[in-house]
Input
Amino acid sequence: VMEILAHATNTIAEGEVMQLINCNDPDIEEHRYLTVIRSKTAKLFEAAAELGAVLGGAPSMEPVLAAYGRHLGTAFQLIDDALDYGQHNARLGKNIGDDLAEGKTTLPLIHVLRTGTEAERALVRSAIEQGGLERIDGVVAAIESTQAIAYTCARAEGEADLARAALSPLPDSPYKQALLDLAHFSVHRDH
Output
């Protein structure tokens, strides 16, 4: 237990440093972004799931549950990043674009930078470099016109599929079903 927690703590700290280094950098590519979220949120989920196998005395299931947690955490974070630009935030007490205000380059923005018009790319690039929310309306419009939220959600669904597939060695049970349901919830939530 201590080894898993220590490794997770180190990896999460490294992920936080990577994220800080990436702040206000519009040249972050998708693989670098995924490395950060896999080192932070996904690592936390991975450790928690793996610990379930350790504490349950099922060493052969440790890699199975670790893979499940890693993919579940990645899916969860992708949806979290998509929700950052949703209209529901006001009702939840959150501000639209909190990540952008901090200069974080998340997948919806990466998608705009990769597929948007020249004007959309320039707007998003500038917004990331400057941080803040002065250009949020234009950024949200660019996200909508490039279908960046749909792209991000599709990537999250792919990760949830991998999480569900990782559970195939587990026998059917209410516990396995709960894990499958959790993978479904992680990508179909609105908060």
Observations:
- The chain has a mean pLDDT of 94.
- Residues 2-188 form a domain with the Farnesyl Diphosphate Synthase fold (CATH 1.10.600.10).
